[in-house]
Amino acid sequence: MYNPLRFSWKIKRRFLKWNTADIEKHQRKQISKLIKSSLKKSKFYSTFYNGYDLADHAGLPFMNKQLFMDNFTDLNTKGLTIEECIKHCLDKEKTRDFSQYHRGFLVGMSTGTSGNRGIEFVTKYEALLMQILVFYRFPFPKAKKIHLAFILRVFSPGFGHEGRKIKVSYVNPLDTIPAIVNNLNSLNPNIISGPPSVLQVLAKEKQNGKLSIEPLLLVSYGEVLDADVKEEVEKIFECSIVETYKSSESFIALPCKSGNLHINEDTVFVEVLDKENKPVEPGKPGYVVVTDFIKYGSPIIRYRLNDLITVSPDFCPCGSKFRVIEQIHGRADDVIYGKSISTEEYQFILPDFVRRSIVSSSDYIEEYRSIQNTPISLTISLQLNKEIEKMLKKEEVVANIENSIRENISTVFQKHESQVPELNFKYEQIVHDFDKKLRRIQRNFK
Ligand SMILES: [Zn+2]
């Protein structure tokens, strides 16, 4: 555990001064401390590692959402039961008052896309450490006073703040778009933090003159930030977007002043593993496994997330030796699978390939979604620019778009030595549901 005052002093120093050996030494120490504490304080962990060598962290069994939720009551070290946490969260949903604490803890509930409920809680102390981490490490732009507007469905009191230098406001993404725009216009924040799908909608409102704010920086979280969306939104707002990477289990990464996303090596140990659970080399995609050094109330040890990332083989030009995340590819569930031509085996194809195959096909594509229902079929929904309706040769234009996508997808699958899937096209208005994460690329089979 950390002393908050010493912790804030160390936050910047560690990031800039530590070399790889310092990082590894710190992580080894933190891991052993966390395991010792969890064994002592958590009923679940007191037996979970029976028969394992505790000194060999990489040999310990994985934790995942299912196992975590099934054992929540025994696993947490604060005596919270799963029943009381769920009840508290459902009550909060009813009253819409998300500022309530439960027995001094901040308890939140997430509905996973598969419908399974996740309970997350932090102690006030843990929330304070996370706040310090963000405020001391985040590359705030130069301004007299920072006013950060969080577009966040659930108000998290752990991050509420009004100080001399920084003010944080919350905007509910479930309001209508005109209401969100009005709210932002009157708040006039200089930083906006929201999922990229929301930032993209705001960019359109900015473009049509309804949104008048001129932020200095945009912060993206919660969804994959596609390169084309980044470019479009940055151009309209005339400022850059940086990413943060946080799951309910851990605050994984923060951007630096060069705009790169650094793993918070001092507060979380991140492993990037392949299908056989072996570490992948930097520069190659792998599954994320986290061990968190802050959340002692609900110990997170070798917790397997459903995310796929690539860590950069290079250090960042900012000088920090904290590893840089080159790309967050999204949910591992949404990786595309190709059926190998020669071996009949399945191999994964990063969603970005499919994304680019579609986006680069035509400027008339305004929005899209690709759903892989079987290894050899893809359904692609397209929302095309209304200009097309007015065209005399509309059918020809649409056929050209389809052909171009078909060609691009074939190239991608052939490069991966996989059978080219059959493509079905649908044309529809694709609406973002702000209540859910936007997933443009999805897979519907295991
Ligand atoms: Zn950097």
Question: How would you characterize the overall build of this protein?
Answer:
The mean pLDDT is 90. Helix 1 runs parallel beside helix 7 and helix 9 runs parallel beside helix 10. A hairpin with a 5-residue loop joins strand 1 (105-111) and strand 2 (117-123). This protein has twelve helices and 21 strands. The chain has three domains: 4-128 and 245-332, Rossmann fold (3-Layer(aba) Sandwich); 139-243, Rossmann fold, CATH 3.40.50; 335-443, GMP Synthetase, Chain A, domain 3. The strands form five sheets. Strands 9-10-11-15-14-13-12 form a seven-stranded antiparallel beta sheet, covered by helices on one side. It is globular, with a radius of gyration of 23 Å. The protein is of the alpha/beta class and 446 residues long. Bound molecules: zinc ion. Zinc ion binds next to loops.
Could you list some keywords that capture this structure?
binds zinc ion; Rossmann fold; 12 helices; six-stranded mixed beta sheet; 21 strands; 446 residues; 3 domains; seven-stranded antiparallel beta sheet; alpha/beta; GMP Synthetase, Chain A, domain 3
What is the strand and helix layout of this fold?
Elements: H1 4-17, H2 20-41, H3 43-48, H4 65-70, H5 72-75, H6 82-95, E1 105-111, E2 117-123, H7 124-137, E3 146-151, E4 161-162, E5 166-171, H8 177-187, E6 191-194, H9 196-207, E7 217-220, H10 227-237, E8 240-243, E9 245-246, E10 251-255, E11 261-263, E12 268-273, E13 285-292, E14 303-311, E15 324-331, E16 336-339, E17 346-349, H11 351-359, E18 365-374, E19 377-384, H12 394-415, E20 422-427, E21 441-443
Parallel strand pairs: 3-5, 3-6, 6-7, 7-8, 18-21, 19-20
Antiparallel strand pairs: 1-2, 4-5, 9-10, 10-11, 11-15, 12-13, 13-14, 14-15, 16-17, 18-19
